[in-house]
Amino acid sequence: MKKKSIGVGLIGLGVVGSGVARVLASKAEVLAEQAGCPLVLKRAKVLEADLAKPLAKEMGLKFFTTDADEFFAEPDIDIVVEAIGGEMPALDYLKRAITGGKHVVTSNKEVIAKHGAQLFALAQQQGVGVHYEASVGGGIPLISPFQHDLVANRISGIYAIINGTTNYILTRMAREGTDFPSALKRAQELGYAEADPRNDIEGIDATYKLAILASLAFHYQVQPRDIHCEGISRLDSLDFKYARELGYAIKLLAIGKQADNLIEVRVHPVFIPEESLLAKVDGVYNGILVEGDLVGRVLFYGEGAGALPTSSAVIADVVSAARDIVTGAGSRARWWLEPGKKIKPMAELETRYYLRLNVADRPGVLAQVAKVLGEQKISISSVIQKAADSVAQTAEIVIMTHPAKEAAMQPALGELERLAVVKAISNFIRVEA
Amino acid sequence: MKKKSIGVGLIGLGVVGSGVARVLASKAEVLAEQAGCPLVLKRAKVLEADLAKPLAKEMGLKFFTTDADEFFAEPDIDIVVEAIGGEMPALDYLKRAITGGKHVVTSNKEVIAKHGAQLFALAQQQGVGVHYEASVGGGIPLISPFQHDLVANRISGIYAIINGTTNYILTRMAREGTDFPSALKRAQELGYAEADPRNDIEGIDATYKLAILASLAFHYQVQPRDIHCEGISRLDSLDFKYARELGYAIKLLAIGKQADNLIEVRVHPVFIPEESLLAKVDGVYNGILVEGDLVGRVLFYGEGAGALPTSSAVIADVVSAARDIVTGAGSRARWWLEPGKKIKPMAELETRYYLRLNVADRPGVLAQVAKVLGEQKISISSVIQKAADSVAQTAEIVIMTHPAKEAAMQPALGELERLAVVKAISNFIRVEA
Predict the structure, then answer these.
(1) What is the pTM of this model?
(2) ipTM for the assembly
(3) Same domain (yes/no): A133, A191
(4) Do the Cβ atoms of B300 and A297 come within 8 Å?
(5) Is the separation of the CB atoms in A84 and A15 below 8 Å?
(6) Which of A66, A101, A27, A174 is nearest to A321 (CA)?
(7) Domain total in chain A
(8) Which of A225, A255, B217, B371 lies 20 to 30 Å from B97 when distance is taken between CA atoms?
(9) Which residue among A30, A33, A144 sits closest to B148, beta carbon to beta carbon?
(10) Which phi and psi angles does B404 have, rounded to 5°?
(11) Residue A197 in this model has a pLDDT that exceeds 80
């Protein structure tokens, strides 16, 4: 199909939507070269409040509509860019666009993580593409590598720092010895964390992204609810101190592994060796390490969020959709599931653990702790007894275990908590080698 | 065009060719899913000597031919994989395949660097694709990100460790204080360096790869001969010692920059800050940092060579070509040049320099050296006078300069060499911040 131009429709005029509108205008010439045809922004569906924004005035108000029906009635739109985020009404808009035979581009991790399979199936029926590079890792190529560059690989592992907010907080805690509340406050002041930061700090955002990557990598529909998730709020500056002494960094990792048709997916803080490359991924940057049987280990690194990096990915997707239209290729990326796979129960996880216990400062305590662990067949790799608090008559014990089953560790933690000499299980963190 | 299967023809049964043949066979099922159609290896053009290889016997000798005419007469080949390397006859084979209407996939950096433009033009006429992901960085996605994911960006810089052999040698020299000859010897024993290592250690291999990346990134046909190239053989263990003292690592970097339509391309050893991510890319690994106006800095990291990683990239290209055939898209990647650009002369380079001088151990020497640099308007950032050799009555001076023009530094080096008090310019290395 030889077209004179390709029409783009935009939903949303927030950070991402505004960035996309600006780039489509300012780079029209080079994008036309890339796409093989001019890309013309035809219409935008926005909220009432968006109409007051300077960009809306620059572009001309007749360009905008607050009415979804009017937007979807526009005949010259070939590609719909959804940039509003959140589950609803984004899902409805995407379905409506696909059903109307339009290619869609979205930066919406929640919708893709929860409803991707449904959208891909609908798009396949309609012969259009669903593009979502911007949903994970901002401008870092991730979806595209899984869909194209790594297709010959059986992926065995994904180890990803994919939430910039938490990585910024952890970096500050590690570098400056800050406690969690003040590092969070600083992140909020800088605009790296939202006023209500729960989605980031509790790991929820990372589960959406991991669900997307793991589904692509393992050819199994991983749902966010399948993912074991723990946030970073229970980390203490002491944990960073001991981690460093032991040669580790602490990161919030999104981990996906595949072995024997069992898929392991979890998001939680981990100890990783401080000389590993992932340990060097600091601040708001993201780093995603992928292990494949052919390619070995590859790492992708960059800014995981922000208007410009996210626009970079959205526009790349728009160009890709445009090439599919220009070449008449329909949708090119393939989505299929391999049968016989299932999620590995968290209880079957086997890993090393770091334990920090606040105990009574008196002889025989370590023996009691060791006995509880031993009864669960958890063997200790090293113990550090830390300076005691002479007023409270307590001491701190830091334990690194050998690999142990989560099914053994959880009851052991329960037992430890019941010991009279254990004042508190101050923390326990899994170790990823 | 609905096809029952897609025929692949293979040229070469070396490390890469054998890897590709094995993967096509062992992963037939998953590759058929990915391509949308089975991929069938139809015929291989090999050398007489290859027929004795175990793989040739496994696959059946009738499958092979040593006769190029017979290979190209095979009607059922849709995609030709060229895996022989070197300029000739690879270039002829690729042209012949393209002219015959076949898509081509190659891992041949030399042919693409020197003759890419010609092949792309020919392929465009024929409506087929030239795929060369495996030509740079083994299985690390690099060509594809430039062709797809980063298309919305104006790329300002590429900073790449893209030769595993030299990076292995430099890593050993840095970690173990080894001198260059023994580090090279060790690399040869491990199979990381060839018996004749010049292509790697003189930086030539890196210029081919940089020519490919820079051409893609800057939309200008960069030829290998445009690239200023220096190898690593003049590096001494002392340079690593001083680099560490000053807070730097030494890497062979392939650097491409674009500003004001001037393109700067060079391959030479550099000092880079030891806390930078590229400084952590060690051993045979490759790391490629790309700077774009939207995406910011992204880094790609992985194994840059080897049968399996390279096969990962070749097969991904085969699948991509197959999708183009299945969807009737012809070639999808676009190749075009932007007018008005030119190569920046090396003399106009402005950078900081590290100088190591062997001088007479007597008063007033530093004043003479400083005077020569001052006359060329090169200002000194720091000087370290190193332990003297009391027998030879010489001392070592290590100088870090402020940013200076190459056009000033080169004559200054000439002047320094002529000073009676300067016994030798032991080394000079550019600094990349």
Answers:
(1) 0.96
(2) 0.95
(3) no
(4) no
(5) no
(6) A101
(7) 3
(8) B217
(9) A144
(10) -145, 160
(11) yes
